[in-house]
From TrEMBL:
<keyword id="KW-0472">Membrane</keyword>
<protein>
    <recommendedName>
        <fullName>Microtubule associated protein</fullName>
    </recommendedName>
</protein>
<keyword id="KW-1133">Transmembrane helix</keyword>
<feature type="transmembrane region" description="Helical">
    <location>
        <begin position="177"/>
        <end position="201"/>
    </location>
</feature>
<feature type="transmembrane region" description="Helical">
    <location>
        <begin position="262"/>
        <end position="287"/>
    </location>
</feature>
<feature type="transmembrane region" description="Helical">
    <location>
        <begin position="145"/>
        <end position="165"/>
    </location>
</feature>
<keyword id="KW-0812">Transmembrane</keyword>
<dbReference type="Pfam" id="PF10067">
    <property type="entry name" value="DUF2306"/>
</dbReference>
<feature type="transmembrane region" description="Helical">
    <location>
        <begin position="25"/>
        <end position="46"/>
    </location>
</feature>
<dbReference type="InterPro" id="IPR018750">
    <property type="entry name" value="DUF2306_membrane"/>
</dbReference>
<feature type="transmembrane region" description="Helical">
    <location>
        <begin position="83"/>
        <end position="101"/>
    </location>
</feature>
<feature type="transmembrane region" description="Helical">
    <location>
        <begin position="113"/>
        <end position="133"/>
    </location>
</feature>
<feature type="compositionally biased region" description="Basic and acidic residues">
    <location>
        <begin position="337"/>
        <end position="348"/>
    </location>
</feature>
<feature type="region of interest" description="Disordered">
    <location>
        <begin position="322"/>
        <end position="348"/>
    </location>
</feature>
Amino acid sequence: MGSPPSNPFAAAVRRLYRPLGFTKGYNVILFFIFAGAMLTVCIARLKFFDFHGTMCGEGVGATLPGECYWYKKSLFAEIGIRIHLYGVLPAGILAVFQFIPAIRRKSITFHRVAGYISNVLVLIGTIGGFMIAGHSVGGGADIQVAVWFLGIVVIIQLGLAMWNIKKLQIDQHRAWMLRAWFLLGTPITTRIILVFAAAIVTKQNNYLQTRHCEHIEFMLQSATKTLEFYPECAAYFNGSNPDQHAIVRASMDFNRVDQMSAALGTTFGMALWLGMALQAAGIEIYLQLTPKESDRLRQISYRKQMEAGYVSPGNAGLTAQSIGDANPFVPPAQRRAGLDTEKTPLLM
C-alpha cells in the first residue's frame, strides 16, 4: 500500500480515490482523463438516439455538417448509423465502470456480465460503422480503409482479451482490453485533431472538394443560394445532368455550412489515422511503464491455472512462452529457490 504521503493535499486526494480501488495517483489521473472523456462523450451523444428529432430532424441536423444528407437519403445508411449509435454509446458507458478497480475486485459477477454485454455491443456498433463508412464525413477511400481497419483490429483485440481470460491469463486479458478500449477512444482524439486541422486548412485557403449539387442544396437549405454560389448546379436543377457536382472550397466559415463540410471532409481521414496512431502508441507506452501490475497479474494467473490443473501454469494464454522461444513463466519465489526453468514443461 505504501507509506502515507506527507503532503496534506496528497493525503486528502488519496482518501478520495482509494475507495475506487486505485493505489497509484497517476492511474487516477489517467482514468479521469480518458475514461472521463469517453463517459462524457457517450452520455452527451445519447440524445442522438432520437434520430428523426434531435439528430437529423428539420434542417441539416445536429451532427457534422452535411452528414444527415446521407442518412436521410439512404435507408441502409440510416440503419447503419442507428446500429452504430445503439452499440457504441452504451458500450462506452459500461466500459468506464469496467476499469474501476473496486468494481473488478468486489463485484466479479457485474464485471463479467457487463464485459460480455459491452463486447457484444461493440461488435454491433462496429457492424454499423462498416455500413456507413462509405458516407462518413465524405466517405473517401482513406476514411473507409481507416474505419474498416479500426473495426477489425478492435474486434481481434477484444477476441484475444476474451480468449485470455478463458485461459485464466489475467495479465494478457488486461493488456488486450486496454488496447481495444484505447483504440475505441480514437473518435474522441480524432475530433480534437479535426478542429486544429480544419483551422489550418482554412488558413491555407487552397483546399477544394467536390460535392453533389443535391448535397449542397441540402446543406444550404435553398436552391436559390445553391445556384448563387454554384452556377454549374443549374444542370442539376434543370434535369440535364442529375449527377452534376460542384467544387466547394474547404473553409470553416460558420456562415457557409457547405464549406465547413468540405473542410471537415478534407481533413477527417488524416485526423482519423493520426488519432489511431496516437491512441495505439499511448497504450503501448503505458503498458511498458507498468510492468509491476502485469507481473502481479501474471502471478495471480499462475496460481489460478495451477489450481485448475494446467500443465504449464502462467503460460496458458497468448504469452511469449506459449507460442514462442521463451522460458516458461516461473513465480519469483521459485526462481529464488533455484528452479531450473529449462526443465519446466511447456504447455502444448
